[in-house]
Structure prediction request, 127 residues.
Amino acid sequence: MDAKEFGSLRQRLQKTQSQMAQLLGTSLKAVQSFEQGWRKVPVHIERQALFLLSSRQPGTRKSRPCWDIRGCSSERREACPAWEFNLGQWCWFINGTICLGKSQGSWSQKMKVCRKCEIFSRAVKGK
Prediction:
C-alpha cells in the first residue's frame, strides 16, 4: 500500500489522522509518515485498515463466498484456510489461501493476486 492509497483509504473511512492512529493502534506521527510517504505502511497496518474499510461496504457479510464465485473444487476448498474458517468474503485477509491453484504465502505476494480479484474489489471498493 502506498502513501496515496493509505491517505485515500483514511478519507473514505472519514477519519482524521488522529482518529486513524487510534483505530490502528499507532501514533499520529506514524499515520502522517505513511501519508507523506516517509515511512512504508507495515503489513499489519495495511491489513487492519483494509479490514476496517471492508466492514463498511454494504452486503459484504451477506455476499457469496469466494469458493462459490471462483468455482473451487472440493479438494481446493478443503486445503484453503478461507474455507476452513468460513471467511469467503474476507479470503483476501488470510495468508495461505489457495488462489490460482496454489497457496499465496506472503502478504505482498497475496495482495498482488487479491488486488485483481472481484472479491477484494467488492470488499474494499464496493464494486
Notes: Residues 47 and 93 are 7 Å apart (CA to CA). The radius of gyration is 15 Å. The chain has a mean pLDDT of 87. The first strand starts at residue 98 and ends at 99.
